[in-house]
Amino acid sequence: MNLDIRQAVKRNLVNASNIDILNTINDAMTVSEEKVLPGLGVLFEVYWQTASDEEKNRIAMSIANNMKQ
């Protein structure tokens, strides 16, 4: 079976509001199942593709700092 996770996530959220996105992320974090990680990865990829270099550096620094905790 050829499942395109990127396209499925994008299709499901194409007209989503910011509240819909927040709920999707919060639901995925609450479920704590590894099967939701690819979907979160797609959301991050969509953000990353349009983020400025400053935003990317800020997020990378934040993640690096949180990984040390």
Please write out the topology:
Layout: H1 5-12, H2 18-31, H3 37-50, H4 53-67
Helix pairs in contact: 1-3
Keywords:
69 residues; 0% strand; globular
Account of the 3D structure:
- By secondary structure, this protein is mainly α.
- It has one domain (5-67).
- Helices cover 74% and strands 0% of the residues.
- It contains four helices and no strands.
- Helix 1 packs across helix 3.
- It is globular and about 30 Å long.
- It starts with a helix and ends with a helix.
- The mean pLDDT is 92.
Number of domains: 1
**Could you describe the largest sheet, including whether it forms a barrel?**
none
Low-confidence runs: none
| Helix share bin | over 70%
Mean pLDDT: 92
- The radius of gyration is 14 Å
H and E string: HHHH
Strand content: under 5%
Tell the overall outline.
globular
What's the total helix number?
Answer: 4
Task: Tell me the span between the first and last alpha carbons.
Answer: 39 Å
Could you say which structural class the secondary elements and strand pairing correspond to? Answer: mainly alpha
Total strands: 0
Short synopsis of the structure:
This protein has one domain (5-67). With 69 residues, the chain is an all-alpha fold. It has helices spanning 5-12, 18-31, 37-50, 53-67.
